[in-house]
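Hi all, long-time lurker, first post. I run a small reading group and we've been trying to get comfortable going from sequence to structure in the token notation. Rather than ask abstract questions, I figured I'd post a concrete chain and ask someone more experienced to write out its structure so we can walk through it together at our next meeting. Sequence below, copied exactly:
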Amino acid sequence: MEGRTRTQPKDWVAALKNFMDAGARITERCELCSTEIGRDHPHLIEPATRQLSCVCQACALLFDNPEARRYRRVPGRVTRLPEFDLADAQWDALLIPINIAFFFHNSPTGRVVAFYPGPAGATESTLTLTAWAELAIANPVLNELQADVEALLVNRMDGAREYFRTPIDRCYGLVGLIRQRWQGLSGGEEARDAIQQFFSRLRSETDGATINRNRIHA
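-- Answer (accepted) --
Happy to help. Here is the structure in token form:
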């Protein structure tokens, strides 16, 4: 029939790709005021529920205060701690079943908590006050962590001994990544590769800006 253009198979492929690309570009909005936000945006955390919210800069500034009650702004800086002191025996005493964990001060409970990622999400591990106190004596930087929003992230996979002072949203991002990629009983190569890439990106953020915050300066 004249006047009608017949769609070729390759046109269908292009049309499907454009449709999928459009879906990937869905506009993200601030969860408080609905303002459009970019891919790199601040986060708030609600300490009582540990729920993260994506927000705009204006809303983030409203809660950029340690005295904020319902929400706390999550900071953006990652610091690598190359001289962090954690002996293998101390790590083993923490009874964490995998070689990745993060630790932070939970203000609603008034104590330091430890979590490790897995296929079901973040699992809380028993952490005694004595164990944390010993670590804090050897590593005074732990006393500087902002409650609820900063964590000590530990990577001891495949012989690594890496320690980061990191925003809490990065820790939960790692949890989500592992949960998404985990396969079988051991996790599989895809999960392992994703974890390695995560820490590679984390290292790249601290290159040239690593600060030893463990020493007490006079």
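A couple of things your group might point at:
Residues 71 and 205 are 26 Å apart (CA to CA).
The chain has two domains: 28-73, 79-206.
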